[in-house]
Records
---
Amino acid sequence: MRIDILTILPQLIESPLSDSIMQRAQNKGCIEIHLHDIRNYSVDKHNRVDDYQYGGGAGMVMSIEPIASLIDKLQQERSYDEVIYMSPDGDLLNQTMCNQLSLYKNLIILCGHYKGVDERIREHYITKEISIGSYVLSGGELAAAVLTDAITRLLPGVLNNETSALTDSFQDNLLSPPIYTRPPKFKDWEVPPILLSGNQSEIEKWRENKALERTKKRRPDLLD
Ligand code: SAH
């Protein structure tokens, strides 16, 4: 899979994508991530990428030309499954969406700044708008990093044990059951004895029950 991230602050997104699982995924060739600085496509001699709002009002707007020429260039090179804009008024990101996006080959992710991008970019270039939650960030970079991470860990070969993404929360619409490791007793807090019993089918049943119990209590909406 290939993801092209369009931003005016590439340095903001480099670090979260260059460590741990994200780094391994790229080293193993499971994913290629390309960061593009929108500023390099500015049509202005001062390298500006924003301008005042028509109609007045506080806050700058990201200009149409640099973003359009960058997307045009990329689309001439290959075809993209989705051109995504990170935006607080987009579809709320969830695991089902990540699963779907992880099946694609090429994605563009556009990060906004200031008040956001000129609406004509959204109308004519963007095919999908995604929000990572009902709050406002200063820029789309952290949101793009969240989306890229959530997709990447689903790609075949990225996690050591491929089943481990399947047993995470939200797959099957259930939260994860509680987990424990050594020691079996700390202070007087004991690990549930069933987990030490070696009886795998009973352990699985216990985990399913706990997952259901936790989902009912914390996220009943997932069971609807
Ligand atoms: N004026 C906009 C907010 C702009 S915030 C509004 O009221 O809707 C600047 C940029 O940060 C946005 O263009 C978007 O790319 C990013 N952003 C902010 N909050 C976000 C969120 N919850 N999810 C995804 N991207 C977000």
---
Amino acid sequence: MSPADRSLTVTIDGPAASGKSSTARMVAEALGARHLDSGALYRGVTAARLRTGGDPDQWTEQSVLEAAARVTLAPGATTFAARVDGAACEEELRGDAVTALVSLVAKMPHVRRWVNRTLQATAAAHAVVADGRDMGTTVFPDATLKVWLVAIASERARRRVLQRTGRPPTSAELTSETAELEARDRKDSEQTRPAADAVWLDTSGITQAEQVAQVVAWVRDRERERRKP
Ligand code: C5P
């Protein structure tokens, strides 16, 4: 796939475990763009602050911002990796300690501003497919295409367990995973919104390949519209 025009910006927003990241990554690959994972940046800031130590109840916004200065985004072939203290740390970013505290960090207005500026500066130089919660509303209001992913919590929970364990969930696992996702949805509800001009994609009954094909087709339509005299 030839590299996309660097003015291309696609946003994919939705609640936790709605398939944003995997869809965004595959759409980016199909378009010759790079996946920009805003959640990974919030996770990177949280991991950096955790490394500094201290009781999370006492974390000040200033101390979290100081930690953010140790987080960078490194461009790879099809994605950007969040690095903390100069090194990739994917496992740490996805671990329970970071997941438990990331919503607290993401509530801090100056941290959100820092993340948003970092994302915007990155997208100014590259074609990106950005995923998160407020990419279409706040960070990239002029995106080429905005997608809002929808899936009910129990379906998201089923996929998450399947991804983690490689088998379908037991009913106890489904119940606890659904409750956990609903709790995170509540914590993140303020910033999790569809843009008024987003196209909605209900992923409940379709495969990942179908989701990706649909988003790529929408992008192609937008690009054709844009080229019309
Ligand atoms: O998408 P992911 O689960 O990795 O995001 C981790 C957390 O980062 C979310 O639960 C949310 O608190 C925060 N986040 C956010 N805004 C975004 C992306 C992520 O507040 N655009």
